[in-house]
Design brief:
7-stranded mixed β-sheet; UDP-N-acetylmuramoyl-L-alanine:D-glutamate ligase; Rossmann fold; 467 residues
Length: 467
C-alpha cells in the first residue's frame, strides 16, 4: 500500500467505497489523514466501517474544514449531472481529486525521479499497459502495475528510487488527476466513448489530452484527427512528443510497416523489430500497441535488446486475443473480452482462416458490422441467447451450427479445424456478446474456454492452467 502522507493530519472527505474507493480510504488513513467516507450503497458503508474507516453522511458534514474531497472515478463528476457530493464540495470550494492524483502527489513528495508511465486511449490501453510492464519486468526492473487495468494504484508498493510504475488511466481517472505528470505519457487513439459521462467528444478528448500534456515525453498515436491535433498542440507548448502510427510513416517517431516496427530519426529509418513471429501481438492494432510500448520503454532507458526480448516473450493479455493451446496447425485463441462486435473485429482481422465461436447475451447491432470478415470464417459455432439472431445474420454467407453451449462448440470446432487442409487455422472464441446469459462475466467464460481446450486430446497448452 502507498500511505497518502501528503494529506497527513488534514480532514478529507471521500465518496465511493467500492474496491478502489475502499483502498483509497485505507491509504489515506495509513498516511495520517482524518477521513470521513460515504457511499450511496449501505453495504459498502458497512464494509468500510468494519474495516475501521470512519463513515458518515457527507450531506451532514461541515465542509468548511475539509482540505480535499476524494471521489471514486465511477461517480459522475460533470455528466449527465454532477453527483450530489460533487455539488457540496464545489459549493464549499474544496478541491475534488481521485486516487491517481493522490498517487502522483506521493511520487512527487517521496521519489520524483522514479519512472512513471501512464497509458490512456479509447482502445488498446490494457494490452499496452500489460506489454510495457512485461518488458520492464523481463528486463529485471522493479515494476509496479496498476490503475484501470484492475489493481488500485494506491495498493501498489510505495514510490522509491529505481521503482517503475506502469499505470493504465481511464478518462474518469484523468478527470480527477489535475496534476498528473508521467515520465512518459501515452495516448493511443480517440473514438466516441463514455459521452454519457463527458457530454461531448471534444470534452472527452480534452480530458485525455491532459495526460500527455503533463508528461516529460508525450507518446501520441497520430492515426485519427483528434490525436493528431493533440500531438501538434502539446508539442507547440514545449513538451517532447514522440509520434507513432500503425498506418503511415512518421518523420520522427515509430511506425508500423506491415508487421515491422520502424524507428524514424534524423531523416533516416531503421527496423526495430518484426512482430510476425509473436502470436500475442497479431494485427495492426497490436502494432500500434507495440510501437507505443517500445517508445515508452526507450523513454525510461530500457535497451533495444531488452525491449525485443520482452516483446518476444509477451504472454498476451488474459482473455484478449490470447493463444492458449495448439494442436498441429490449429491454434486455440481466447478472446472472451470481445463483448460486442467492435471488440471482436481485431481478432477476426488477425487470422486468415477461422473456426469462430460466437454468441451469448446480444448487444445492440448484433454482428452485421463484421460482414467484411465473413470470408475468413470457415464455420461459426453459435452459443447462448444470440445464436438464432447471429444465424440469421450469417445466413448463406457462412456455414454455421447452433452449438448452444461453449463446451459443445469447442469440441465441434476443434474436430472441424483438425480436418481442415488449408493450412494454419484458428479456433477463436470472440463472442461479440456479453456473457451474462451463461456465465458470471467474460473472465469466467474465458476460463471455461481454456478448460475445454485443455481437455481436448493432443492439445499442447500455451498457458498455465489450474489442473
Amino acid at each position: 500500500m502507498i500511505p497518502v502522507t501528503t494529506l497527513k493530519d488534514r480532514n478529507v472527505a471521500l465518496f465511493g467505497l467500492g474496491g478502489s474507493g475502499l483502498a483509497t480510504a485505507q491509504a489515506l488513513v495509513e498516511g495520517g489523514a482524518k477521513v470521513i467516507a460515504w457511499d450511496d450503497n449501505p453495504d459498502s458503508v458497512a464494509k468500510a466501517a468494519s474495516a475501521g474507516i470512519v463513515t458518515g453522511d457527507l450531506r451532514k458534514l461541515d465542509w468548511s474544514g475539509i482540505a480535499a474531497f476524494v471521489l471514486s472515478p465511477g461517480v459522475p463528476l460533470t455528466h449527465p449531472k454532477p453527483h450530489w457530493s460533487v455539488d457540496l464540495a464545489r459549493a464549499a470550494g474544496v478541491e475534488i481529486i481521485g486516487d491517481v492524483e493522490l498517487f502522483v502527489r506521493e511520487r512527487r513528495a517521496h521519489a520524483p525521479d522514479c519512472p512513471f508511465i501512464a497509458i490512456t486511449g479509447t482502445n488498446g490501453k490494457s494490452t499496452t499497459t500489460a506489454l510495457i510492464a512485461h518488458i520492464l519486468k523481463a528486463s529485471g526492473l522493479d515494476t509496479q502495475l496498476g490503475g484501470n487495468i484492475g489493481t488500485a494504484v494506491l495498493t501498489l508498493d510505495p514510490p522509491k528510487a529505481g521503482r517503475f510504475y506502469v499505470v493504465e488511466c481511464s478518462s474518469y481517472q484523468i478527470d480527477l488527476a489535475p496534476t498528473i505528470d508521467p515520465t512518459a505519457g501515452i495516448l493511443l487513439n480517440l473514438t466516441p466513448d463514455h459521452l454519457d459521462r463527458h457530454g461531448t467528444m471534444q470534452h472527452y478528448a480534452d480530458i485525455k489530452e491532459r495526460l500527455v500534456a503533463g508528461s516529460d515525453t508525450a507518446i501520441v498515436a497520430v492515426d485519427d484527427s483528434f490525436t493528431t491535433m493533440i500531438a501538434d498542440r502539446v508539442e507547440r507548448a514545449g513538451t517532447k512528443v514522440v509520434r507513432i502510427s500503425r498506418r503511415q510513416p512518421v518523420a520522427e517517431g515509430l511506425y508500423a510497416e506491415g508487421t515491422h516496427i520502424r524507428l524514424a530519426h534524423g531523416g533516416g529509418t531503421r527496423e526495430l523489430v518484426d512482430l510476425s513471429p509473436i502470436q500475442t501481438l497479431r494485427g495492426s492494432h497490436n502494432a500500434q500497441n507495440a510501437a507505443a510500448a517500445i517508445a515508452a520503454c526507450l523513454a525510461v532507458g530500457v535497451s533495444e535488446e531488452h525491449i525485443r526480448a520482452g516483446l518476444t516473450s509477451f504472454p498476451g493479455l488474459k482473455h484478449r486475443m490470447q493463444p492458449v493451446g495448439r494442436k498441429n496447425q490449429v491454434v486455440f485463441v481466447n478472446d472472451s473480452k470481445a463483448t460486442n462486435a467492435e471488440a471482436a473485429a481485431p481478432a477476426l482481422s488477425s487470422y486468415e482462416r477461422i473456426y469462430w465461436i460466437a454468441g451469448g447475451l446480444p448487444k445492440e447491432g448484433g454482428i452485421a458490422s463484421l460482414s467484411g470478415f465473413f470470408p475468413k470464417i470457415a464455420k461459426a459455432y453459435l452459443i447462448g441467447e444470440a445464436a438464432a439472431a447471429f444465424a440469421a445474420t450469417l445466413g448463406a454467407s457462412v456455414p454455421y451450427e447452433i452449438s448452444g453451449t461453449l463446451e459443445r462448440a469447442v469440441g465441434h470446432a476443434a474436430s472441424d479445424a483438425e480436418r481442415d487442409g488449408a493450412g494454419p487455422v484458428a479456433v477463436l472464441l470472440s463472442p461479440a456478446c456479453a456473457s451474462f446469459d451463461q456465465y458470471k462475466n467474460f473472465e469466467v467464460r474465458g476460463d471455461a474456454f481454456v478448460g475445454h481446450v485443455a481437455a481436448l486430446p493432443g492439445v499442447t497448452m500455451l498457458i498455465e492452467t489450474n489442473g
